[in-house]
Amino acid sequence: MGGKESRAGTIVYGCCTVFTLVGTALSFTGLFLPYWYVKKYVTGIVVTKVHVGLWVDRVCVGEDECENHWISSGDYDRHDLAMMPSGVLIRWFETVGVTLAVMSLVAMVFVWVARFKRPMIKTFSHVCYFTPVMIAGFFCVIGTLILASKDKADGADWAPFFSGIGGALLFVAGCMSCIIFRYDPSYGTLENPVSPKYISS
Q1: Is residue 84 within 8 Å of 55, Cβ to Cβ?
Q2: Which domain holds residue 162?
Q3: Does the reported pTM lie above 0.85?
């Protein structure tokens, strides 16, 4: 691999790695923030404000008494008036998206290791990275779009922005990973038939 191609390849690998790291961190943060949806309800004379999350709720009774509660814990039942529209579906999309994003981080390590390996090994490592990172980005963005489409009362909070931006970065990283194949030393040969040179010959 020539010096120019090697430098360009390193830049593309580096961009993919940064976008994957930042996208995974943002999506992971959004998954566990209790600020996806906000609802208020009155019990007697007490006003309760609930910041609804996918896995954690923040319940504020009055002005200062706020506590975080895990949704899956047995000692907490979310009030019927504090339900997020399509909450179970959104949680499924976001959880699967974050899981696949973490898998893509692991696969990115193998992409770096296989960079100068044989074409078959390199292609396999790219497929193992490209598939989960693209699906992760798609799922994280879809989860936020579901909430946007269901929210009729402007109850959405600010946490969905983390997952939406994180998913977009993961999607961009997946698209950029396709460029990496351009810097394969076997590009345009029978070993790597997915190239314009081979198709035109």
Answers
A1: no
A2: 3-35+83-188
A3: no
